[in-house]
Amino acid sequence: MQGLLKLTWLEIKIFAREPMGLVGSIAIPVVTFLLLGRAMGGRGAAGPSDSVEFVRVTLPVLAAILIALSTVLSLITIVSIYREGGILKRLRATPLRPHTILTAHVLVKLFMTAVTLVVLVAAGKRYYPVGLYLPVLSFTLALLLSTLAILSVGFLVASVVPTARFAQPIGAAIFYPMVALSGLFFPIASLSPPLQALAHVMPLTYAVSLLRGILTGDPWSAHLVDVVGLAVVFLVCTALSSRVFRWE
Amino acid sequence: MSVSARAVIRVAGIRRTYGRVVAVDEVSFEVNQGEIFGLIGPNGAGKTTTMECVEGLRRPDRGDISVLSLDPFRDVYALQQRIGVQLQAAQLQKRIKVWEAVDLWASLYQTPVNGAALLEQLGLTDKRDAWFMTLSGGQKQRLFIALALVNDPEVVFLDELTTGLDPQARRAIWDLVRGIRERGKTVFLTTHLMEEAERLCDRVAIIDHGRIIDIDTPAGLVSRHCPERTVILTTADQAADGCFRAIPDVQSVERHETRFTIRGQGDDLVTDVIQCLSENRIKVTDFRTVIPTLEDVFLRLTGHSIRD
Q1: Within a 13 Å sphere around the CA of A158, how many CA atoms are in the beta-carbon half?
Q2: Model pTM?
Q3: Mean pLDDT over each residue of chain B, to the nearest integer
Q4: Is this prediction's ipTM beyond 0.85?
Q5: CB B93 to CB A6 under 8 A?
Q6: In this structure, which of A94, B10, B156, B157 has its CB flanked by the most CB atoms within 10 Å?
């Protein structure tokens, strides 16, 4: 346990020392969110209710999903860099348990997600043109669950990507199409049957449904399917990656 | 040097394959308490695979290994407390500071040594706040040695420790390794540098194509496999030729004007030649010996040079 906390804190410090580390993971999503919000909100104040809906619900969900994806992509990258450099192997030759080493990286990513979210909410309160209804505790929980599920998929990808150079593009190629099919922009029902089937096995679909529901004031009981879906993805992917994970 | 006969590492008949490639086969050896034991051979001979099996990082397909009377696979966590490991070609996080690495490692063991004293010992005190990526090759290797020593281990594993270092840094590392032995620890190292093995190791095992060919002290290997000795000297003495030929161990004497090349077998040859010079009052203006090295032993045993 002490090893886990120490390693997690150390990895946070190391991440913060990377030139693009903090900027990439915090500033870019926050700035994108604010710019989009202002652009749409400016019209939304007097415009059609669609854009109010966009600013109030779609945009926060999109921002949350993008934060989750950027942390997952950076997890995939860092795991493959560590594997290629033999850092994973070196850590594994110490009394650190293998799952401790990997858990530390997940904790670092969750920490980054939390920091980004806090900055986002603070910036949103100050600059956001439209009042935002945000049930902080529920939304955080929903985002945590979504992030864990997406992270577990990310870990599965990280377990098998051949080299660090391919990690980021392969991860992006897997995750970004998911955003398009997740029901965030078009209703799932409007997709062709094969794409609908695909959408129903993607964790992002459940994450979007849950996050949107929580933002629009649904109770958790209305989204049990989403919670179970995310939990199943998490358990299956974690179990699979613990079998296929390569240390070197 | 005091080497007691207690074996701290016993390896019996291990075999390890990767797919259809047999990396090591029928490998057996023992490493004694307090010695520097070297596994030597060319790249790809099976040195690292063997060492990683002993460290518990890889499981052999068959064969038995015990380290400090523990099974490296079953008792890996108990064993890790008592051994120190430096891995070949394994890096650290680019932006980890030297002291952070030592501090993290120290926190993982039950009986850590003082980190600051360790850095001092390895000449890294000035670099304690430096990022790993800014260290030179020699400094990185010294840091890896520090990490391998942080738990005050009984056995230290060093895999290709000086590969890629310049000769000066290499010598400094050799001194550090001798220092580890002087503190009563056992060192198990691998190297493809014959000079390193010759200067550093008490005993060496020669490995090639996954099999151990022979095990002995470097001097023992040389005298068993390459007993030929050569003395090259220069003298104007006309009677010298006959005197040299009369020495029992001498097999051939070549003469080129005043220069003689005397070849023979066995460690006594050099002494016999010197004795002959002194008894016959032969004046020499130059005298040197050519004695085979581990490199020659390797060539003779395997039929190929270690650099091939």
Answers
A1: 28
A2: 0.84
A3: 91
A4: no
A5: no
A6: B157
